[in-house]
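ok, trying the design again with the full structure, not the truncated one.
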């Protein structure tokens, strides 16, 4: 099956998935947004209330800030592939180890199918999951935000660039400047590496 058809099949599968308890509180599973040939993939934690209602990732308040950050980096949201570690609404905005373990195979397959050159985990949960997946030591976001890590596994090789989750800056406004600085620098590194024009 080609990557696009397989993603479509997975998108349908999560709509009725009951592999963890989160199916009980979702209105709409949120699988992804963006082109299958994207060179950059963003990975958040999970859908919030607005995302659950609309069935799209990053459309609430944190999504609006993410849009500004993407612009700050000189990128185009429509060219990015956006998803989350968990595909169903997190009422407490907190994920358990069991929920992550149940849902992560979807993310693993998305990474295989999209095969991005750059993975951008947003927030600690996504960063820890992706760094561990590629055999690296997880570390607090204060130490790793905006840094470029080279990840390799079997035939896959990509850059991982952890960023603060935009919701962190909504909770803690002084972080806003850090996020804008990180994304500005991210965009310019991507241009110097020739990943984006
Ligand atoms: S969060 Fe993931 S594993 Fe849990 S029910 Fe939803 S799609 Fe299935």
């Amino acid at each position: 099956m080609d990557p696009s058809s397989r993603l479509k099949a997975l998108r349908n599968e999560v709509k009725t998935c009951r592999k963890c308890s989160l199916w009980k509180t979702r209105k709409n599973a949120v699988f992804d947004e963006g082109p299958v040939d994207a060179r950059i993939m963003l990975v958040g934690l999970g859908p919030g209330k607005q995302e659950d209602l609309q069935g799209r990732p990053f459309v609430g308040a944190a999504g609006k800030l993410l849009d500004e950050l993407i612009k700050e980096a000189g990128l185009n949201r429509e060219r990015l592939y956006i998803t989350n570690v968990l595909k169903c609404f997190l009422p407490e905005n907190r994920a358990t180890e069991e929920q992550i373990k149940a849902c992560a195979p979807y993310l693993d397959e998305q990474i295989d199918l999209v095969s991005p050159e750059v993975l951008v985990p947003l927030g600690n949960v996504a960063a820890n999951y992706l760094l561990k997946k590629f055999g690296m030591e997880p570390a607090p976001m204060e130490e790793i935000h905006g840094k470029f890590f080279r990840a390799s596994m079997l035939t896959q090789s990509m850059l991982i660039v952890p960023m603060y989750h935009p919701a962190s800056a909504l909770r803690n406004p002084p972080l806003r400047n850090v996020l804008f600085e990180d994304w500005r620098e991210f965009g310019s590194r991507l241009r110097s590496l020739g990943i984006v024009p």
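Keeping the full-length input from now on. The chain is about 45% helix and 10% strand.
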